[in-house]
Amino acid sequence: MLTISNLQKVYPNGTKALNSISFTVDQPQVIAIIGPSGAGKSTLIRCINRLVEPSAGQIMLDDVNIASLGRRDLRKARRRMGMIFQEYNLVDRLTVMENLLSGRLGYVSFWRAWRRNFPPDDVRAAFKLLERVGLEGYQDTRADALSGGQRQRVGIARALMQAPDLLLVDEPTASLDPKTSRQIMRLLVELVEEQGTPALVNIHDVALAQTFSDRIIGLRKGEIVFEGTSQDVTEDVLTDIYGEEDWSLTIRKANGEDRGDDQTQGKNNGYLREAATG
Amino acid sequence: MSPSLPDQTPAPPRWNRLRMIENPALRYGLLCLGVVYIIWSIGVLEINWHRISTGIPRAGNMFVRMVPPDFTRWSLLVKGVLESVQMALAASFFGMLLAIPLGICGAVNLVPKPVYFVARTLIILSRTFHEIIIAIFFVKIFGFGPLAGVLTLIVASTSFISKMIAEDIENMTPGQLEAIRATGASFPQLLLYCISPNVLPRFLGVSIYRLDANVRHSTVVGIVGAGGIGQVLAATFSRYDYDFSLAILMAIVSLVFLGEFFSSWVRGYLR
Amino acid sequence: MTVTEHAKKYPQVWRRFSPRTTLIHYAWYLGIVAVAVWSVSNLDLPWGYFLDAHVQAMDLATRMFPPDLEFWDTLAAPLLETIHIATLGTIVTCAIAFPIAFLAARNTTFNTATWFVGRFILVTSRSVNTVVWGLFFVAIFGPGPLAGIWAIAFRSIGFMGKLVAEAIEEIDEGVVEAIEATGASRLQVLTYGILPQVLPVIYGTAVYRWDINIRESTVLGFVGAGGIGILLYSSINQFQWREVSLILCSVFGVVLVSEFVSAMVRQRIS
Ligand SMILES: Nc1ncnc2c1ncn2[C@@H]1O[C@H](COP(=O)(O)OP(=O)(O)OP(=O)(O)O)[C@@H](O)[C@H]1O
Ligand SMILES: [Mg+2]
Question: At B32, is the secondary structure helix, strand, or coil?
Answer without folding.
Answer: helix
